[in-house]
Amino acid sequence: MKVILNLAGILRKRVKMVQAIYGKKVGSTQIYDENGNVLCVTAIEAKPCKIVQIKNVESDGYNALKVGFGVVKESRLNKPKKGEFAKAKVEPAKYLKEIRLADFNDEYKIGDSIDVKVFNIGDIVKITGISKGRGFAGVIKRFHFHRGPVTHGSHSIRKTGSIGMCSTPKKVMKGKKMPGRMGGERVTIPGTKIIDVLSEQNLILVKGFVPGAKGSVVYIRKA
Description:
Blueprint: H1 2-16, E1 20-32, E2 38-45, E3 49-55, H2 57-60, E4 63-69, H3 79-88, E5 95-101, E6 113-114, E7 124-130, E8 135-137, H4 139-143, E9 180-182, E10 186-198, E11 203-207, E12 217-222
Antiparallel strand pairs: 1-2, 1-12, 2-11, 3-4, 3-6, 4-5, 7-10, 7-12, 8-9, 10-11
């Protein structure tokens, strides 16, 4: 009976554990699995995130953990951020981010750390990041349009083509695919598998690619 109660307590703690963390994209590489197959993986450095503030519905309107991560000189911070870290008695961090919670979690307190151990090998996670900015781009690069004819003196090889309407409604509809700023947007990869968790190096290896440039901040959470 005691064993069953202990197992129930362990499962309850696992359910309450926050399975989300912020990290930095290190880069992509290849590794071999146990069957000798080559896997393309992306390495994410996720150092421990210190909890600076705990938000709840009563005081803030939603449940969340505000965490700080990244090394920064104290002279680089403004007075409000210095005061926030001093109030929490936490070392200053370069980034301040929030981890949203569906329900209030009383397992964590200010000053606690969230590290890569919240994930296990084989977990399916969502990864959110800011994609690489490509600047102003045409429709061929931006939306993979086909080019126009090259022969017979054509002047519409890489142009958009007709964008207008007939007599009704006499305008260009909103959302039309046209040249414009490409990249630099918030992108989420919905179902990515964790291949390995290297707790000593604070690294997470995920299958496939992750949006963003090397060194950019990404948000990892359990799917």
